TrEMBL record:
The keyword tRNA-binding does not apply. Reversible hydration of carbon dioxide. Keywords: Lyase, Metal-binding, Zinc. Coiled coil: none annotated. It catalyses: hydrogencarbonate + H(+) = CO2 + H2O. The keyword Coiled coil does not apply. Its cofactor is Zn(2+). This is Carbonic anhydrase. The lineage of its organism: Bacteria, Pseudomonadati, Pseudomonadota, Betaproteobacteria, Burkholderiales. It is an enzyme of class 4 (lyase).
Amino acid sequence: MTTMNDDKLRDLLDNNQRWAADTEAREPGFFSRLLKQQTPQYLWIGCADSRVPANELVGLLPGELFVHRNVANVVVHSDLNCLSVMQFAVDHLKVRHIIVVGHSNCGGVRAALYDMRVGLVENWIRHVQDVRHVHSEWLAGVPEPRRVDALCELNVLEQARNACHTTVVQDAWSRGQEVVVHGWVYGLHNGLLEDLHITAAGSDEVEGAYRRALAGVKARYATGG
């Protein structure tokens, strides 16, 4: 018996067939070329939120952006999944840029900010609560309607700094490989990406970049920008 759910899944398969046909018509040989290699220059570490489609936001085709996503775009040294993606991207694909991307009104960040009971993921977003604890005094002075977005941006800065301190990135820098780490935030309300200006291309740049970016975030929220 065919159910409504079966029909919805069939819609996805039909959509895929149209997309593949349109792509091949627009760029003949696209899939045969893609099969031979992937040479992305960018690793995107973003939130799993369905409203943040990485490739589409930056106008890149399949094969041009390597992507890892999890709840609240967290980078921690115990997450072998994220670290494995980073290691493959840096050591084998030779990506030149790692971009940690958060987004406004993030549900995971909201849950961390307000100690919401959301099930198993509570254990994961404890990492975001750690960020909240570090900046709790400043966050308390941010107007409540803007507090979630403020923590979203602080979380990007902390996770980008974490990415810099991973053995993957540290080893790449020590052997002279060009890898630049960035932190961005995406606005669900306007569809725009914003550079938070935490950009580091070597171990000696990390803490200075973090401090400048942190000062920038705090200054913008202080002025209502």
